[in-house]
Specification:
The complex is a heterodimer. Chain A is of the alpha+beta class. Chain A contains six helices and 17 strands. By secondary structure, chain B is of the alpha+beta class. The longest helix of chain B is centred in the last third of the chain and has 17 residues, at 68-84. The chains are: A alpha+beta, B alpha+beta. The interface between A and B is medium-sized, with 17 and 13 residues.
């Protein structure tokens, strides 16, 4: 099963009420609905409220997008690349996780965590220190005989206004707390080739006064990374079993750290330097052995 | 909960041993449970079929340096939790 890599754009229109309840939904930490998953005449319908409906055939080969009025094409493409495509790809047997990553000493450092915990901001800040950005939102992981590789995704970074101002070294403008903005790809170094996944970090809530980087147990890693997966059909138990096995192999093969730090821009530069140095030192030592 | 009660795994649970611990994923609810080494061994005892509580206690006392009373208490506590979360089925 190979999912379609693009979608057919239908005419814009308001999202109609549906006769059935969704069988699954994605919620933000404040319980706002990010996406709803419906069955639609044997096929799938992924609804992103006030943004778009994606109609997907059961074999994943035909995708049609009905955008809400006023949705621009770039936003639709971003929605497709960052949400729809990884969901379909995972259903077809691939491994995509929700997270950012940068290239440190030839290895990928992945950053995962719940929405608004600062994944993109941390990845952007690491990239601004010369550590090329591999991906902002989707960790596309492929498994070779002895390694898990991370493939670079689109060269873009979407962060909230205050993070953008910090990353670009510009004074803050009146900010929108609910909308992200794109930092032009030319402003940050980006990676162009896949690299082995060196480590994963799970971002804590930031309710701390000090930076902490603590290794996690493999069983905790497995339970954690399952929460950052893209799953199309929670009722397809065969697909879930396969996905669980892929995640278990990842948890066994790649170290993972619980990472937390105060979300304070006054301390952030030092925090980012310490995180970068921690992994640079660790991996440079490995390379020298 | 009697020694003659029969315990089996729920059909909706997938399990995987990682790093010396057993992680259970409830496919119906999408929730996770971690079992320590002894809990993981009890889960293994249930692989492939039903076991009575009495059989599991005997297996535990054979394999671990534990009294029947302690094995029984630990097993009942674990099974109560697993049953409450629909991870195992119990037939009286």
């Amino acid at each position: 099963m190979k999912p379609a890599s693009s979608f057919v754009l239908l005419a814009p229109g308001p999202q109609r009420d549906l006769a059935t309840d969704p069988y699954d939904r994605w919620l933000s930490p404040d319980d706002t609905v990010i996406a709803e998953f419906y069955r639609h005449a044997g096929d799938f319908l992924l609804r992103f409220p006030e943004q778009a409906d994606f109609f997907i055939t059961r074999d994943l080969r035909d995708i049609r997008c009905s955008p809400a009025p006023d949705m621009d094409e770039a936003s639709l493409q971003s929605l497709f690349e960052n949400s729809v495509r990884p969901v379909l790809s995972n259903h077809a047997g691939s491994l995509n996780l929700h997270g950012s990553a940068v290239n440190i000493e030839g290895r990928a450092l992945a950053v995962m965590g719940y929405s608004r915990r600062g994944k993109s901001t941390l990845a952007g800040a690491l990239a601004m220190r010369g550590l090329p950005l591999l991906t902002e939102d989707v960790l596309a992981i492929s498994r070779t005989e002895d390694r898990h590789m991370v493939t670079p995704q689109r060269a873009s970074l979407r962060v909230f206004e205050d993070s953008a101002a910090f990353l670009l070294g510009r004074p803050e403008r009146p900010q929108s707390e609910s909308e992200k903005r794109d930092i032009a790809s030319g402003a940050i170094p980006v990676a162009s080739a896949p690299v082995p996944l060196g480590a994963m970090c799970i971002l804590g809530p930031g309710e701390t006064e000090e930076l902490s980087i603590s290794p996690m147990r493999q069983s905790d890693i497995l339970a954690e990374i399952m929460q950052h997966s893209f799953i199309l059909d929670v009722e397809d138990k065969a697909a879930l079993r396969s996905h669980f096995e892929r995640l278990a192999r990842l948890a066994e093969a790649v170290p993972c750290y619980a990472l937390d730090y105060p979300r304070d821009f006054a301390q952030f530069s030092e925090t980012v330097d310490t995180i970068a140095a921690y992994f640079q030192t660790e991996w440079a030592a490995d390379a020298g052995q | 909960m009697q020694d003659s009660d029969t315990i089996s795994r729920s059909d909706d649970v997938v399990s995987r041993e990682v790093g010396g611990e057993t992680v259970l994923l409830d496919l119906g609810q999408g929730t996770y449970y971690g079992l320590n080494a002894v809990g993981g061994r009890i889960w293994e005892f249930l692989e492939g079929g039903d076991r009575t509580i009495g059989e599991i206690i005997a297996l535990l006392t054979d394999e671990f340096d534990v009294t029947v009373a302690d094995a029984e208490a630990d097993l009942r506590a674990l099974l109560t939790e697993l049953e409450a979360n629909a991870l195992v089925k119990r037939a009286v």
